[in-house]
Structures are given as C-alpha cells and as structure tokens.
Amino acid sequence: MKVRNSLKALKKIPGSQIVRRRGRMYVINKRDPRWKARQG
C-alpha cells in the first residue's frame, strides 16, 4: 500500500473505490490490488 498526497489520479482506474476509514482516505481495488493507497 502506498501513502500518497492525492488520490485523484487513482479514482479513474477501473474498479477502484474510495473509502473513508478512521479519518483516512483509502483506495481499494479488487480488480487490480496493486493500486491500494491511503491518504492522511
């Protein structure tokens, strides 16, 4: 999982979802798990 300043670019990748958990933004992608990331 990468820690990134902005998750905007990862939104466009097919299958990605943005989730808020415990005050952090996460990108999870079941189709392509290498795009996992968090912000904050």
TrEMBL record:
InterPro entries: Ribosomal_bL36, Ribosomal_bL36_sp, Ribosomal_L36_bact. Keywords: Ribonucleoprotein, Ribosomal protein. It comes from the Bacteria. SUPFAM superfamilies: Ribosomal protein L36. It holds the Pfam family Ribosomal_L36. GO terms for cellular component: ribosome. Belongs to the bacterial ribosomal protein bL36 family. This is Large ribosomal subunit protein bL36. It comes from Curtobacterium oceanosedimentum. The gene is rpmJ.
